[in-house]
Amino acid sequence: MQEEHLLQEIIAIAKDCGSILLSASDIERKIHQKAGRGNFVTDYDSRVQAILKSRLLELVPGAAFLGEEDQMDGTDVSKGYAFIVDPIDGTANFTRNYHASCISIALAQDGRPVLGVVHNPYLEETFHARKGMGAYLNGQQIHASDRTLAEGLILFGTAPYDEKLIRKSFEVAYRYVSRAEDLRRSGSAAIDLCMVASGRAEFFFELALSPWDYAAGALIVEEAGGFVGDLQGGALTYDHSQAVTARAPGVELVDVSDVLENDMP
Ligand code: IPD
Ligand code: CA
Ligand code: CA
Q1: 8 Å CB contact between 191 and 93
Q2: Which of 49, 62, 133, 231 is the most buried (most CB within 10 A)?
């Protein structure tokens, strides 16, 4: 299928799934606990993922499919085409009617994202990128900001499902915010990455994320002229959970190696 047509089809699917989030009712009765602290899934996560799986695989037959609600069940995303999707990024927000959740869809080729779509139905904001073709918000090209860290807005995720990372997350956040302007925490890593891509914030980090949280957003950041990597600037991979940073080009990484090495309660 022609790439532009494929992109438009994927955006249409993301928007259809967004409508499901907007019309969700009685969410409290459809919440189930998963492994890890404060980690929930709702019937909507499962339903949206099932729709994504069947419609996306119709578009690219034979592609691998890695979605949060199937977990890493041996799906190999390193060869050929693979969809890496989060049916609802920001599930805790969704269960609270907080209106900061999105659908995140990446298409990877030989282990690297080549297409990414992040759709936030609450704001009717659809971010997309194709490898080498720039990043867009509702069809308008976007760019990472030219601000420095000192002028910067810092975003972070607290790696909430792993209790051991809470203290370290706040230490790393302090290292950055003490050199910057201020801090925010949205509850959706994919939305945070798009905030860096669109120049609304300058730096994002989270000490543990899974590929479905960042595959689409990372490509959108890179195509907007920003950088993604781990906390030391090493390249991201898309086959296991890891620490993720995203930054505007004028923002330098801060040395946090002592925080990462220390055992903290
Ligand atoms: C979570 C969100 C959150 C981040 C967590 C993610 P979920 O995804 O992106 O911002 O802090 O680490 O797991 O569970 O809502 O899909
Ligand atoms: Ca997620
Ligand atoms: Ca999710």
Answers
A1: no
A2: 49
Length in residues, the chain = 265
Phi then psi dihedrals of residue 20, to 5 deg:
-65, -40
- DSSP alpha helix (H) spans, 67-210: 91-95, 166-177, 189-197
Nearest-atom index, ligand 1, CA of 212: 16
**pLDDT tens per residue across span 127-177:** 999 999 999 999 999 999 999 999 999 999 999 988 889 999 999 999 999
Interior/surface letters 3-30, b for 16+ CB within 10 angstroms, e for the rest: eeebbebbbebbebbbebbeebeebeeb
89 lines ligand 1 (CB under 6 A): yes
Distances (CA, A) of 206 to 20, 139, 212: 28, 28, 14
Burial class (CB within 10 angstroms; exposed 0-12, middle 13-18, buried 19+) of 176? buried
Helices (H), 60-116: 91-95
Pocket test for ligand 1, best of 17, 209, 212, 244 (most atoms within 8 A of CB): 209
- Chain mean position to CA 168: 21
Alpha helical stretches, state H, the chain: 3-22, 43-59, 91-95, 166-177, 189-197, 211-223, 257-261
Q: Check if the beta carbon of residue 149 is closer than 8 Å to that of residue 181.
A: no
pLDDT, one tens digit per residue, over 93-114 is: 999 999 999 999 999 999 999 9
Among 239, 155, 233, residue whose Cα is nearest residue 191: 155
In this structure, the strands spanning 125-130 and 140-142 are unpaired
What is d(CA 233, CA 241) in angstroms, rounded to the nearest whole number? Answer: 16
Amino acid identity, residue 147? R
